[in-house]
Amino acid sequence: MDFNFTEEQGMVRDGLSRLVREQYGFEERRKAIASAAGWRPEVWAQLAELGILGMPFSEADGGFGGGAVDAMVIMEEFGKGLVIEPFLPTVVCAGGFLKHGGTAAQKEEHIGAIVSGSAVFAFAYAEPKGRYDYADLETTAKKDGSGYVLNGHKAVVIGAPWASHLVVTARTGGERRDRSGVSVFVLAKDTPGVTTRDYVTVDGRRASEVFFENAAVGADALIGAEGEGLALIEMVTDEAIAALCAEACGAMKVAHAMTVEYSRQRKQFGVPIGSFQVLQHRMVDMYTAYETAVSLTYLATLRLGSDERTRKQAVSAAKVGVGQSARLIGQEAVQIHGGNGVTDEYAIGHYFKRLTIFDSEFGNVDHHLKRHVALA
Amino acid sequence: MNLEFTPEEQAFRDEVRTFIAENYPKHLADFGMREDMAREDFVAWHKVLGAKGWSVPAWPVEYGGTGWTPTQRYIWSEENARVNALMPLPFGVSMVGPVIYTFGNEEQKARHLPGIRSGEVWWCQGYSEPGAGSDLASLKTTAVRDGDHYVINGQKTWTTLAQHADWGFFLCRTDPTAKAQEGISFILVDMKTPGVEVKPIKLLDGGYEVNETWLTDVRVPVENLVGVENKGWTYAKFLLAHERSGIAGVARSKRGVEKLREIATHETLDGAPLIKDFDFAKKVSQLEIDLAALEITELRTLAGEQAGKGPGPESSILKIKGTEIQQRLTELTLEAVGTYSAPYMGGVSNDNGSNEHPVGPDYAAHAAATYFNMRKTSIYGGSNEIQRNIITKMILGL
Fold first, then answer.
1. To the nearest whole angstrom, how far is the Cα of B313 from the nearest Cα of chain A?
2. pLDDT at B357 over 60
3. CA angle B125-B131-B137, nearest 5°?
């Protein structure tokens, strides 16, 4: 048992921490969100240069030999600065599908482009009526010659406006919600028949509704075996959840620190509000919620390589516990900031917004509590 | 970073598992703690461990510690929890022992540490007073120097299991003119000294776990002062931090959740096992998730200690979360047994001497008493509100 980070992981943390501190201030972030592009491609290029985008890939696949713990370190730093660039969909999700299910040719084609920063991916799994069930799919992929034809509507595809490529889940057989018959495809976003409606998310990112209308792809677009994609999707989304939890931990850490600092500065009744025990104990509960969230994030991350049941239990435990902590810390941070907490001008509200949306990504607290019960 | 045991750690686990299976007293197996049990039963396992050299794992090796890594200590508590082993009581091993080897003189170490290790000497804690609970520093018990002796007068309370105690460690005021925290001394008292009187307090569960301890003109030799006169508050705080670090009770709570699941498998609701009821199962899952978070938090703290950081204010988190979980576990167990939570069968401590077989299932007999008893956990060892004050000051810096 070992809770230490390696020297390399420490260096990655320091490098990213500096980048976020020096180049990703609140004002720069605000400007990027309001810009036409909605993100900062130059930051993406820097991440590629620093080796961040290649960190979780093996050296054989063209990466730098890191793993889930490296992704955790990276995502935590992104969370501290509310970084919006699509590391999660590109490196963790698409990268995960390629690592675990990709053919040599698919890896060859895509991993190098991810590592160099030239390809950006979005993961189109959610549907308007599917909620958090990855098998509840109305999108279909019909066999057509050697390839497939996709039809359907994918919901809230984070990062899709910036993406060059999509990873898409679709039904190739079976009935709606069947565990079998689910397949995963990788394709260029400019494939004919793919259209998007792009928009801004409440937490400052960009997303799209993605529509497929007889979009034809070749046989080489299929990742993994046809109709047997669900286990792969569960594995990759579990990895994504662990990484998201790390991001939430970073955001919670900063939200808590900002709140404590605010309570030191803000005076009412002639004294700093931080001198009131009623607020002190609430900030202690926030701190405890943060520490337990970190622990569950470690647990989920370190269990990603375990057997399926152990992995799912740990990941669901984390999504429940971190989700509850994120809700508590977000709401309390705003409350203790008083009126300033509900203004757009103060950074704290933006942390609150990110921590709020976190719960709805890849299954909320209720969903994962249910999964945890089912696994007992 | 990883959670796996090395081959050496797996071998260690096998070794301690075998040792426990072969040496844990058979008549106490899976019995847990009962305040009414005989003194020799309380210390039976402690004495076996003392002989083996395993009674004080966390102590420095030079004082009899085992030199185990945090992971080995974790394995040790897990393996003991598997059989619900009655571990050495904390008053000697986790409280006064570390104070003596850290702040005591050579004579005190030589005189007291062997008895703590072996389980021969039973210690009790004289901290709280009727008027000094959370505000411990307002304590009024006095120790007045008279030649080679201190003369102690006052009243202590909540003295756990003092009915069996040979020795006690007491906080006494030695300088009534100094600021509250600066006039307190840490004094060891032989409980057989004339003037020491222990009176039992009956608790909600019907048991006699704690006592009032009255001290009337108790003459104690000055060599029983630990460390420096009037510096006792420092040692008291040190002790409380040590007390808190073991207080999370993770391994024991994990065993408790297993038992809760067993009970909820036997109990039925609408003709199906209670554990199949989603509303109930959800509460059990939430408890397990919180317990998993606590377990990793404790392991992180232990890893920090190994890296040279003593038990710091982080141990307050373990105290708060650990006791909340222990209480929720007893609460869910009470809910699980349903109507059979009501019959009074003499409580955790059977004060009517009855040996009658309980009505209802065996597992229901102590559910209510245990629930009542465990309300103490968020109150003792520095109440959970005091722990929040400590975190406010030491970690948040407010």
1. 12
2. yes
3. 65
At B350, is the pLDDT very low, low, confident or very high (cuts 50, 70, 90)?
Answer: very low
Q: Which helix (H) or strand (E) holds B84?
A: none
User: Radius of gyration over alpha carbons of chain A, in Å?
Assistant: 21
- Partner-chain contact A260 B286, CB within 8 Å: no
Neighbours of B14 (CB within 10 A): 12
Match 């020491």 to its residue by tokens.
B196
- pLDDT at B6 > cutoff 60: yes
> Could you report how far apart the first and last alpha carbons of chain B are, in Å?
33
Nearest of A163, A207, A215 to residue A191 by alpha carbon: A215
> Which residues does residue A222 pair with via DSSP β-bridges, in sequence order?
A185
| Residue B268, amino acid | T
User: Quick one: tokens of A19?
Assistant: 């980048």
Give burial (CB, 10 Å; 0-12/13-18/19+) of B179: exposed
3-state secondary structure chain A: CECCCCHHHHHHHHHHHHHHHHHCCHHHHHHHHHCCCCCCHHHHHHHHHCCHHHCCCCCCCCCCCCCHHHHHHHHHHHHHHCCCCCHHHHHHHHHHHHHHHCCHHHHHHHHHHHHHCCCCEEEECCCCCCCCCCCCCCCEEEEECCEEEEEEEEEEEECHHHCCEEEEEEECCCCCCCCCCEEEEEEECCCCCEEEEEEECCCCCEEEEEEEEEEEECHHHEECCCCECHHHHHHHHHHHHHHHHHHHHHHHHHHHHHHHHHHHHCEECCEEHHHCHHHHHHHHHHHHHHHHHHHHHHHHHHCCCCCHHHHHHHHHHHHHHHHHHHHHHHHHHHHHHHHHHHCCCCHHHHHHHHHHHHCCCCCCHHHHHHHHHHHC
- d(C-alpha B207, C-alpha B373), whole Å: 9
B250 touches chain A (CB under 8 A): no
pLDDT by residue (tens digit) across B215-265? 999 999 999 999 999 999 999 988 887 766 567 899 999 999 999 999 999
Across the A:B interface, residue pairs with CB atoms under 8 Å apart total 119
Torsion, Cα of A365, A371, B1, B4 (10° steps): 150
A-proximal residues of B, 309-338, CB under 8 Å? 314, 317, 320-321
Please check whether residue A149 is in contact with residue A194, taking contact to mean a CB–CB distance below 8 angstroms: no
CA angle, corner B111, sides to B146 and B165, nearest 5? 80
Q: What angle do CA A127, A129, A133 make, to 5 degrees?
A: 70
**Under 8 Å between Cβ of A182 and A135:** yes
A40 touching B, CB under 8 A? no
Task: Say if CB A186 and CB A89 are below 8 A apart.
Answer: no
B349 has a pLDDT exceeding 70 = no
| CA R_g for chain B | 22
Length of chain B: 398
Q: Measure the CA–CA gap between B77 and B86, rounded to whole angstroms.
A: 11
- Nearest-10 crossing angle of helices A277-302, B315-337: 80
**How far does A292 lie from chain B, in Å, by closest CA?**
5
State the pTM of this model: 0.94
Count of CA atoms in the C-beta half-sphere (13 A) of B258: 10
CB A1 to CB B299 under 8 A?
yes
Q: Is the pLDDT of residue A188 over 50?
A: yes
Among B292, B296, B388, select the one facing A284 at the smallest CB separation. B388
Contact A2 B2 (CB under 8 A): yes
Closest among A221, A202, A232 to A93, alpha carbons compared: A232
SS3 B75: helix
Question: For the segment B106-156, what is each residue's pLDDT rounded down to a tens digit?
Answer: 999 999 999 999 999 999 999 999 999 999 999 999 999 999 999 999 999
Helix (H, G, I), strand (E, B), or coil: what is residue B211?
strand
